[in-house]
Amino acid sequence: MNPLDYLVPESLDFPQRLLALLAIPLLAGAYLLLSRRRNRKAMRFTNTAMLELAMPRTSQWRRHLAVAMALLSLVTLTVAWAKPVGLDRVRVERATVVVVLDVSQSMAATDVEPSRIEAAKTAATEFVNGVPPTYNVALVSLSGNPGVVVPPTLNRQAVEGAIAQLELRDSTAIGESIVVAMNALQQAPKGDGDEPPPGAIVVLSDGQTNVGRPGVQGAAVAADAGVPVFTIAYGTENGYVDLDNERQPVPVNVEEMRQIAERSGGRALTASSAEELRNVYQQVESEVGFEEARRDVTARYAMYAGVFAVLAALSTISLSARWPS
């Protein structure tokens, strides 16, 4: 969530009540006017030493601070009176997560021990086990001919077994794989009202699309359906594979994965080791299955008003306190 959401509400139930804020600049102006008059009176003293004793400079700053805190308290109290509504991330009870795992030949690279594909299988299995038990999980293999390996299911053992049995294949069709993942989401059991539960797609790949539609076009299909695609660019720049007795470099492609995530409203992540991949999957796990819900945040702004009021009171009390010189 954007930190500004805690300071600026999404909407107000009674925005007309904010008209009361017009009194704030009037109060501030009145305070400045009275301060100037007081300063003019003080200038009648000819003995500046007596003036400093009667009205120390530091006390003026504490007085200004007390007034500023009091005005901020009135501002936040007025916003609370207008009944602000904010957005909050709420975990849904049911959701579907589609794991898209790259099984192209480049995943045989050993720049990640024991190999990209074996480390990816291990991390994907841990991720599936970490998904809430009420969520359906589906598995899609990413290659030149992507397909649904396991449709949405609550059976984690079926998904784990399918991950372990994945074999390397030719070519990389990331865009087509996302479309296949979208088709898998349609197979998820419907909820109340015959509406499908919210879904998310997690794509782990090291390569670049070389067949089928570009990855960003597949992301557009997901974006139109409101499905975020979380991408994990996996591998290093030094990866290589031996194909037909010829060494071919297979550096990880980060840019396409980033474009996919941005286009779909998901998040782009990178991992260059098995440990980093586990950490990345944990980050994804903490984000999938959430939706933004509107809720009343009047209490939050009332709390802000209370904090400013306490600060104003402390500043006022400090005015009468004797501080060591």
UniProtKB/TrEMBL annotation:
Keywords per UniProt: Cell membrane, Membrane, Transmembrane, Transmembrane helix
Domain VWFA positions: 96-284
Parts of the chain that traverse the membrane: 14-34, 65-82, 301-321
Gene3D superfamilies: von Willebrand factor, type A domain
PROSITE patterns listed in its UniProt record: VWFA
Domain of life: Bacteria
Any matching Pfam family: BatA
Keyword Disulfide bond: no
InterPro entries in alphabetical order: Aerotolerance_reg_N, UPF0353/GerABKA_families, VWF_A, vWFA_dom_sf
Signal peptide: none
Family matches, as PANTHER family: LEUCINE ZIPPER PROTEIN 4, SPORE GERMINATION PROTEIN
Protein name: Ca-activated chloride channel family protein
Organism: Naumannella cuiyingiana
Lineage: Bacteria, Bacillati, Actinomycetota, Actinomycetes, Propionibacteriales
